[in-house]
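tool=predict chain=A
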Amino acid sequence: MILEPLFSRLKERIRLLGWADGLLSLLASACGKLTGSWLRIVKYHLMVQPVTDKPLLPCRRGGKIQVREVLPSDLPLFQLSARDPAVIACRFERGGRCLVATINERFAGFLWFQKGDYLEDEVRCRFRPLPVQSAVWDYDVYVEPACRLSPVFLKLWQSAGQILTSEGVKYSCSRISAFNPVSITSHQRMGARAVGSCLFICLGQWQCMISSHSSRIHFNFGRDSVPLVAVECSV
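tool=predict ok
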């Protein structure tokens, strides 16, 4: 009887993620809880999607949702997003750009992207979308819980597509947690495809990365050692 909840969770994870990622997600969860996050297992799918300026919403939907690119001076807008202001400031310093959605002037969500290298903050890794001239890295697409049944998500991507297309960008790539089927499905519906994966095993300051891309196996023992994963978007 004690094992029934565990088997039920395993069955559900396998249904959503497949055998390999389903088992790995349970192992990652157990390691984090048992070691106080000293031992972490993180796996990403590397996704690439075409950038388009075509509408993602019918013209009558999402009319109350306003999307605009914001500046570092707009930091108060992020107070409802449970993001550390220092993290937000660091993103701007590294060249990150942010689109914010509001409904009746109330914060509803945001989407971040940037050209060039993106320094991951969950693990030690630097991602490089290629070709540099026509690809960006998108990250931290967030929608307020009360707005998740609204068109905010699509309105953010529609606005991003219009801005990026006007700047000559053809591809956007990102890393999606292999343990997050909702996010994976959302990206696939917009035409994203998986082009590889990265697995990280972190024990305190020590980290091992196993990647399907460049730097296929990388060991590091401190914060100064950061592997580079180049993601070719045009293949």
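Residues 65 and 103 are 5 Å apart (CA to CA). The chain has a mean pLDDT of 90.
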